[in-house]
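Cross-posting from the modeling subforum.

Setting up a comparison between two proteins and wanted a second pair of eyes on the formatting. Protein 1 (sequence, then C-alpha cells):
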Amino acid sequence: MTSLWRRLGRIATAVALVVTGWLTLVVLLTFGTSPGRSMAIIGPQAQALAAIAKADGRVLSSNAYVTIARSNAADFVSRLYASGALLVLDAEQAGGCNGLAPKREQI
C-alpha cells in the first residue's frame, strides 16, 4: 500500500511540475506579444477594470473573472501588471477570444 501512495505522489508531483512550467511559459510569452493584440486579464472584475484604466487600455468585454482588453502600446502587459492585474494572458492564444464579433459565413 505504501508503494502505491509513493507512486501516486510522484505522479501528482510530475503533473504539478508540468502545469507550473506550462503556465510560467505562457505568462512569459505574453510579454513578447505584439501591440494591438487582445489580452485576457484574469481576476476580479473591479481590479481588472482599474488596471486596464491605469494602463491606458480599452475594455472589449468583461465578466466576473475574465476581462478582455486591448492597447496599441508595446508595454501594455507590463503596465497591466504594474497597475495591479493578477494574471495577463494573450486572449487569442489562450482561448481564441479576441473581443471581436464572430465572422459570418457568406452564402
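Protein 2 (same layout):
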Amino acid sequence: MCHYCGCREIPLIKEFIAEHERVTDAAGDAQRALAVGDVERARELVAYMAGELETHWRGEEEGLFAVMRRDPEYAAYIDVLMVEHQDHGVRLLALDLATAEGRAEFDGLVRELHQHISREEDGLFPASLTALSGDEWNFSMAAWREARPGA
C-alpha cells in the first residue's frame, strides 16, 4: 500500500488493511505448513482465511463498495473486485490441499489475492479519500460493524 495519501489513517481503511494482513499472514502460514507436509494445519488456516474473507468482503461490499459504486467512475472497477470476491471464495472452499493440483491452485489463489488486495489498497482506498462524504464514511463504517459484530 502507498504511504503518501493518508488513507491508512482512516479508521475503516485501517480495519480493512488489518483484515488483509491477517488473511495474507494465514496464507503464508498455510503455504509453509504445506511445504513441510502438514496438510491438516494448512486446512485449518485455509478455513480461517475463508471465514475472515467472508466477513471482510461483506463489510466492503455492503459499505465502501456500495457507496463508491454510485459513482460511474468507480462502478466498473468495483464490479471486478466483487466478481473476484465471489470467485476467490468459491475456489478457496473447493481446494483439495492433499493433492499437488490443489496445492498449486492454492499458490495461484494466494498470488491472485495479493494482486486483488493491491488493487484495493493502492487504487480504491486512496480514491475513497476524495470520493466519500462524512455521511458516506459513517454508512461504510456501520456496514463494516454489521459484518463484524463485536468488533
